[in-house]
Design brief:
six-stranded mixed beta sheet; 2-enoyl-CoA Hydratase, Chain A, domain 1; three-stranded mixed beta sheet; 2 domains; alpha/beta; ClpP/crotonase-like_dom_sf
């Protein structure tokens, strides 16, 4: 959560996009406010993700933050400027839609975290398919400290880390460091800050080398099966795998493996 400063360039894009070799990097661009999730920023990120979803040239997405931190959560000054129930309801519905979109876009989404990721910023990290952080990163769900339990961040957090670790973060509201975030599974790996770009670029590049159809099939299947009981999950996964086997990319990949050559993906 951030009590945002009003000093900023009103003409600057709220989300920056940079595409390279099948990887789209989306950078939250409210550095003066530690990239607090204003209504405008959430809308801009929603639009960017929907555009990326339809872009078949993009095979992986990196979500980053400009300035000294990744994301400080919701913009508390904006929230207090319109303290109506309808406004709050609309804000959290918008945030939920954004988080669901991250899970539903066809490409894997990788969080690249430096500095702080707190409240809804921590929710962003927990929601992304993969997350890598610099050793200076700090994470918290500190709403309990100001009388506002982090209930919506809790949804993503409890699906990313163990139950006891999630409750400790939610009930205490304390910062945890990068090493602890890695230990509990909030991030895949914590690395020295001067290696963060290299590590994320390597992961994103490796993902982008795969069949875009296979990535989309696998991501959708992962989130659909995870809340099923084990018998239903196996039945669903067997159907998905059967359909996947009929795809041209699956035939190409198997033939390439047998022929000891690099596959040429067509995305079908």
């Amino acid at each position: 959560m951030s009590a945002a400063s009003p000093s900023h360039d009103a003409n600057a894009p709220l989300v920056l996009r940079d595409d390279r070799d099948g990887v789209a990097t989306l950078t939250l661009n409210r550095p003066h406010a530690r990239n607090a999730l204003s209504v405008g920023l959430m809308g801009a990120l929603q639009d960017a993700l929907e555009t990326v979803h339809e872009d078949r040239s993009v095979r992986a997405v990196v979500l980053a933050g400009a300035g000294p931190g990744f994301c400080a959560g919701h913009d508390l000054k904006e929230i207090r400027a319109n303290p109506t129930e309808a406004s709050h309801e609309a804000l959290f519905a918008q945030c939920a839609k954004l988080m669901l979109t991250i899970s539903r876009v066809r490409q894997p989404v990788i969080a690249k975290v430096h500095g702080i990721a707190t409240a809804a910023g921590c929710q962003l990290v927990a929601t992304c398919d993969l997350a890598y952080c610099a050793d200076n990163a700090r994470f918290a769900t500190p709403g309990v400290n100001i009388g506002l339990f982090c209930s919506t961040p809790m949804v993503a957090l409890t699906r990313a880390v163990g139950r006891k670790a999630a409750m400790e973060m939610l009930l205490l509201g304390d910062m945890i460091d990068a090493e602890e975030a890695e230990r509990i599974g909030l991030v895949n790996r914590a690395v020295p800050i001067d290696q963060l770009d290299e590590v994320v670029d390597g992961v994103a590049g490796k993902i982008a080398s795969k069949s875009p159809l296979t990535l989309a099939v696998g991501k959708e299947a992962f989130y659909r099966q995870i809340d099923l009981d084990v018998e239903a999950a196996y039945a669903y996964a067997a159907r998905v795998m059967t359909e996947n086997m009929m795809a041209r990319d699956a035939a190409e990949g198997i033939d390439a493996f047998i022929g000891k050559r690099a596959p040429v993906w067509c995305g079908q």
